[in-house]
Amino acid sequence: MGKNLFHMLHYAWMHKRQRKILPDLFEEQVERTPDKMAVVYANDDHRWTFRDLNSYANSVANYFSRLGLRKGDTVALFMENSPEYIGLYLGLWKIGVVVAFVNHNLRHESLTHCVRVAKSRALVFSSSLAAAVADVMDELEAGGGIEVGRMCFAVCGEPAGHGGGSFKRLDQELQGMSTSPPPLLAGKEADDKACFVYTSGTTGLPKACVIRHTRFFMMTHGIHLFAAVTPDDVVYNSLPLYHTSGGILAAGQMLFWGSTLVLRRKFSASNFFVDCVKHKCTVMFHIGELCRYLMAQPGRPTDTQHCLRLAIGNGLRLQIWKQFQKRFFIQRIIEFYGSTEGNVNVVNYKGTPGACGTVSVIIPALNPLKLLKVDGNGKHVRDSNGYCVLADVGERGEAAGQISVRLTHRRFDGYEDKKATSKKVLRNVFKPGDEFFLSGDIMKMDEEGYVYFCDRTGDTFRWKGENVSTMEVEGVVQQILDHRDVTVYGVEVPGMEGRAGMAAIVGTEETVNLAKLLQQLSLSLPAYAVPLFVRLSSSATTTGTLKLKKVDLRNEGYDVDKVPDPVFFLHPLLKTYVSLTNELQAEIANGNIRL
């Protein structure tokens, strides 16, 4: 760990000293392997060499430079996965433009917000998303600062849907453009802004996280070192390029370390291993619920015909870790933890099941991660001097990272919104004037330094005087129901302290045996953690990175007048789940049924 960290900091220091930015490092890779395959697009088998990708990036740089874009300007990319996506941000970086990686699932207010908050001067979007852009054209031009007729570009085919005639076709615009390198960029620094990556927006509008050139490279370098990804590896990525895992960590193994990237437009559980077999992939990236979706697929010969030796990602639940590894013959699983904007980054490079990272218990200073002890309400525990207390081994605490401007891996750039940034900083933690980034994630650490994710602050709830981890309950329910989509959250009950557990399960009364579920839950969970309410839904709402959304579910609670789905209640006298009616709900509210 110490050796790898030294390498990362040394490279960062060299790049700062030499004023190298990301396209400089990519061009060095192009010189090393110009004719090697850089990107293979799995959807149509189109192949790009490093030379091809660099030529496309040069044409992008020359075109947007001619339009008047300069260092410090921002261009928003609202695109599905494609090789052009990578070529676009490389080309824009060559002229010092900052790139906003906008989630292509956003619509209306969320979309215009993301374009505006980054102060974008231009918008490039996939032609398949033309209708979504057409819906917000007036807002973009009026308050977004974008000249739609001049600075709004459709790419990768003819625009689909209404409004297509209002946009420029970037594919046509780039034809005949010089593929020679643009003029050298004056005044560039390794600490310049490279891109904005947005939070998932599960608790409000997405926030634009600032990623600088040094941080972008350090993240890819860390995965390269700890996971031992080599130039001979073929990396499979179906994660969105607008997200850190797909657009930075996976793509970065190709950009700076010479691996070949196999890219799919979007995740497909049925095509995942088919692609891996066809293209002889050796490394896969995953996030969120992706591995569970793969486990839920029927068995196929391709499950074990692939060449995958390594899976890298986060969000693989302990309950299916070993099952996943055994079923798909994955030799090694590397889990990492790190919020996009934060400085709390750890890697479980030894593959200990369930752990999301490792910190040194011999030399704790190697990593800025600290677990701050919290009480039952999620508040930081302070000692008699007013300073925070560290969580003991096996005790839950909020992950926090010490902030340092001097050290790249401890820097906290936060969001483009300075007010939002200040809310994530805790001061006077262990001594006067020190500052820590608050991750909002509850974790625990064992005696060997392995770190385990428990829950998001606000997701863990308290019932019958005990803390309930929604992540733990979700994992148990999913295992019982053969990896079905499940979202667990706490709901308020009139007259009761804390929140009762509620599970939203994708299924019907015919496909979900509630009696069997209750029997298995009673064997696997303490009584206070068994969900008091169950909601059977037709589908689950997830973010673009396959994380389950809970805010709307939590707000609707178990109110049968608000919830459009069937709701069931664990009756304390009948000891079984019964259909929740208005009468039964009134009995609960009046306290006539003792919970």
UniProtKB/TrEMBL annotation:
Instruction: State the reactions this protein catalyses.
Output: a very long-chain fatty acid + ATP + CoA = a very long-chain fatty acyl-CoA + AMP + diphosphate; tetracosanoate + ATP + CoA = tetracosanoyl-CoA + AMP + diphosphate
Outline the extent of the AMP-dependent synthetase/ligase domain: 26-375
Q: Which UniProt keywords apply?
A: ATP-binding, Cell membrane, Fatty acid metabolism, Ligase, Lipid metabolism, Lipid transport, Membrane, Nucleotide-binding, Peroxisome, Transmembrane, Transmembrane helix, Transport
NCBIfam families in the record: PRK08279.1
Keyword NAD among record annotations: no
One GO cellular component term noted in the UniProt record for this chain: peroxisomal membrane
* Stored Pfam families: AMP-binding
Q: Which family does the UniProt entry place this protein in? A: Belongs to the ATP-dependent AMP-binding enzyme family.
Respond yes or no to whether keyword Lipid metabolism is given for this record. yes
Organism for this UniProt entry? Geodia barretti (Barrett's horny sponge)
Instruction: Write the Enzyme Commission number(s) for this entry.
Output: 6.2.1.3
Instruction: Please give a single GO biological process term from the UniProt record.
Output: long-chain fatty acid import into cell
Provide a Gene Ontology MF annotation, just one.
Answer: long-chain fatty acid-CoA ligase activity
Which subcellular locations apply to this protein? Answer: Cell membrane; Peroxisome membrane
Please report the name of this protein according to its UniProt entry: Very long-chain fatty acid transport protein
Q: What does this protein do?
A: Acyl-CoA synthetase required for both the import of long chain fatty acids (LCFAs) (C14-C18) and the activation very long chain fatty acids (VLCFAs) (C20-C26) by esterification of the fatty acids into metabolically active CoA-thioesters for subsequent degradation or incorporation into phospholipids. The transport and fatty acyl-CoA synthetase activities are genetically separable and are thus independent activities. Esterifies VLCFAs in the peroxisome matrix. The VLCFAs are actively transported into peroxisomes by a PXA1-PXA2 heterodimeric transporter in the peroxisomal membrane.
Q: How does it sit in the membrane?
A: Multi-pass membrane protein
